[in-house]
Amino acid sequence: MQWMALGNLWFALIIPAIIVLYLLKRKVEDRVVPSTLLWQRTLQNWEAVRPWEKLRRNLLLILQLLIACLLLLALLRPAVPTDGISTDHTVLVVDTSGSMLAKEGEVTRMERAVSTAQGLVEQLGSGQTMTLIEAGREPNVLLSKSDDKQALINALQELSAFPGAADTNAAYSLAGAIAANEPGSGVVWIGDGSGERKLETGAASSFQGPFRFMQMGRTRENTAIGVFVTQPAAKGVEGLLRLDHYGSQPTRGTITIFDGENKLLDTDSFSMEAGGSYTASFQALPVSPVYRAVIEPEQDGLAEDNEMWSVPFAVGKGKAVLLSPDGNRFLHQALQTVGNMDVETIQQAPQQKAEASDLWIYDGIVPDKLPDANVLLLAPDRKTNWLPLQGKRELEQQPKAVAQDDALLKYVDWRDVHTAASAELDEMPGMKTLVRAGETDLVRAGVIDGRRVVIIGFDLHESDLPLRPAFPILMQNIVTWLSPTQSAPIGSAHPGEVLSIPLTPGASERTMTYPNGQKTSITGEGTTWMMQVPDELGLYRLDEVMDSGQQTRYFAVQMSETESDIMPKAQRMGMEPQAGQLEGGEKAASSAGAMELTYWLAALALLVLCVEWRVYQRGY
Domains plus CATH for the chain? Predict the structure, then answer.
């Protein structure tokens, strides 16, 4: 038996109130009778001075107390377990996160979830409807208030788990909001509870209807690769591998390292206690652009986290071009000492197409159009299509940082800096002001057409900034922000993330190759391409065609570590847990549904009220 509204228990005060009314002494009425012989005992009661009388057996009192008890029970909303759909409208939520790929015997949790959901659909009775929600990366309403069993089953069969984390809170909130707005609704959640959290705020927390959690998993033994990194060494390549064990029993197994051509390079064995970790190092691996680590544990519930790719980390130098017609000693020296770039200084713009560079620095000159690289512009002298120059203004106020917490202004002190004049710019979409003197912007930074751009509006020769400690710090911050990242690995990602991929300037063609061999062309411009990471795990390859040849870079997409912890967990909505027990003493939500008895109790109370009225009319 479950109680859905124990907060209404205070209504029980009506029971003692009824009893007190019967204890009060009844008022005396004047009546003419032929004889008082038979009224002696009654007169004795009337003549008593006490305001209370002894509680006597009274059928009306018993019936009224029964009515009060029935109404109180109805307010407490009792419910009894049931195997089928007990509500008129059921919001069915199916978890499709990565942990649902775990094996439970011969089938996955996802397959069990679909089979269980189909059973609930087949139990729908006449007049009952169902809303189907997929709890994936974002909650997705597949069908709304449908009574078409075949359509619901077809939608369920199209569901599949993806190797990423689900937005459980959003799914809970959506399900609770739908159920709260539809009278006679209940929520059924089918999943394993792995990585999920109880919803504490939002529409679902105010939903007081029945909630049913159907646990799809019992397996908790799983070993996963947590970290796999490689880097060049004096002899070959060094590798570091960390394994994490999420099970409750000791485990052991083997580790195998392959290169990009699937050639076996090294092997090792591991042994871990319950909940432990293991670190393995590999020395002098043959040079390869990528490496793949594979583990084979004795007991393992999830196979998707047993493989991981690694791209060796090696930082190279980028190329920068400083175009300064009159020369700038301060700027030249600063660029030579900051950043990790080779700087070429020229005084005239190249007549033909210049060799691709990662960063262009323009001192006192503005290009007609932005180059295919990041840009640092100082003391602009003319207006172009991309630069809305309004003129030059003399400054009477001292420079002041507008966004002191910005990375470009970190540790930069502008209090002792003075500037005579600065270019005045109109509004530029994508650019924000970092430093301002009065109403004039001195330093702006942002992104224009996919390129990072920093604009310093004043000439360094008309300011004492180069003589201040703030100058080398500012240049270090700017060059670091504008520096290319093509020489370093793109970095690993998880399915569903938005990955920023740096593009090599000057490439005439770019192609992305997926782990399954599918290829797609990249048409992005500028120095950065934002990629929505797909749900396919494995190694991705980016090929860029340059004048000097083809450049290839790799990155890996791997399962999130949170999904490797496949231990089932109990789920609840609002403040009403469904208690049960799993193996090992873990509490879990009951897989039984609940049917409320509120309406039956209210109907029974009405029936007793009719009986009580009849008894009163007959004078009992």
Answer: 2-80+600-618 (no CATH), 87-220+580-591 (3.40.50.410), 223-307 (2.60.40.3230), 318-482 (3.40.50.880), 498-557 (2.60.40)
